[in-house]
Every structure is written in structure tokens, then in C-alpha cells.
Amino acid sequence: MTEHLHPCCDPSTPSAIWEGTPSGEVIEISGIETYIAKPPALKGSSPTLKVDKVILFLTEGHGIYLPNAQLLADSFASHLNCDIIMPDEFAGQARLPKNIEPSLYPHKVIPWTEDKNDPNYDLRGLAVPHEPEVTDPILEKIVSWIHESYGQGVKIGGVGYCFGGRYVMRLMGAGVIDVGVVNHPSFFNMDEVGKLGRGKRLAIFAAERDDILPAEERRGTEDVLTRTGVTWTSTVFSGTEHGFSVRGDLSIKEMRLAKEYAFRGAVQWFSDWL
């Protein structure tokens, strides 16, 4: 079932692994494994501490156990001084294995496990379709937990990568969040973009070469955002490919700088609008 997957959605696709040691923790929320990153000043505090904002981090197909995603979540927590909530949107059905040790891979890439006894072996990649009817209920549980834990008045920002970018926009269109950042978003449709309107703030960070979000589709998205009155910005980085901001090869200067600029741009966007 996985032979038709785009590489960005298939955890069997090797990924460059960034240096660093993630400092967050994985907890279960309504049965959903969720990585939570806290700013240094709040380390060890209660997960139900009342704060004024949190960021919902929605991953691409490699999921919450990709070290790069965890490192990004940690960095957002530190720079924005708030908790980052990164749920497993795939309910364990499309993810890298837990307890990844990058040192085991001399070329610093992580292939999908070939352990046929792994209960997820037959579900490699997105073998089970993860359409809105599957993913939306998962995110509803997470959002409910956020409101119960942090207070009904907490402001929720959303940052999404590839697959997760679509769901940041869906949450914005549904009125759950007002401020979002999407990095090389994929598989969304213009009806979903059209549900965003005045009062919504969306930043797009896109790759120059992206067969999922080609230039004409990105420009069409910008046209819809303009018509509906969204406050938006869109940045394209030359020399980059789809996935650069979370799985880019940092030994390539263009990729490294684009990843860094996209991260700083997201931090600034949330600082200005959330």
C-alpha cells in the first residue's frame, strides 16, 4: 500500500539527523503520545500550570520521534517562553521507532525499522489513510486537553510541517487558532484556505523546488488569502527542496540558512501576533 506514497509522507525515507539532544518528554493525552517541550525557566513545573499561550506543533510524516522535530520544539519553547505541544497525529501508525540513537547510523540518516515483528511494520508510511476524518478527532482531543490544562482563555498558536501544515490551516479555518505558521505545507485544498478570513494571521515558508506545493499552487494560495482578508506573508527560499525546514541537510549552506531563517521567522511571527 505504500508504493504510491510521496517520500515526504513515508518514514522509510532516510532523513538527515541534526546534532543535539532533545530535552522534552513524551506523555499520553487521551491515549495519544505527545511530546511536550518547556522553556528552561519552567522545567519541572506542572503540566497544568496556567499560562497565556502555547504552540501546537504538527509534524510531517516522520512524526514526533524524529529528533529534528523534537529539537525544533525545544527551540521554540526556549525562544517563545511557552510550552510546545507536539502530538502524534498518526496514532502510532506512521512514525519512526522510539528511542532513536543517531550514533548507530554512521551516515546520520535513519531508515524505517525492518523489524517485521514491530506491530507497525505493515503500517509503514501512511498505509492507513490519514484524512481529516482520522486526524481531526485526534487534534480535537489535544485541543480539549490544552484548554482543560492551561485554561479556556489560553491562546493557541500552530506551526505545521508538510502534512501538519494542512491541519494548522484547518484549525485556523475552524476558529480554533488565529495565528499559524506553515512550512512547505502539503495536500491542502483551496476550500480549506478559503475558510480563513480577517483576523487570521498566517506565515508560509516554502521551498523553491516542491512538487507538492509548486509555484503556481503557492501563488494561488496567496491569491485566496488576499481575497479573504487574511494577514499573511509568504517566503520562498532558493536552493531548497520540500522538507528543508525539518529534514534539511545542514551541511548544505543554502539548506542550513533557509532552515534557520524559517525558524526565526516563525518565532517573530508568533511574537508579533500571538
TrEMBL record:
Give every Dienelactone hydrolase domain span: 52-272
Q: What is the lineage of its organism?
A: Eukaryota, Fungi, Dikarya, Ascomycota, Pezizomycotina
Which Gene Ontology molecular-function terms are recorded?
Answer: hydrolase activity
* Name assigned to this protein: Dienelactone hydrolase domain-containing protein
What the entry lists under Gene3D superfamilies is as follows: alpha/beta hydrolase
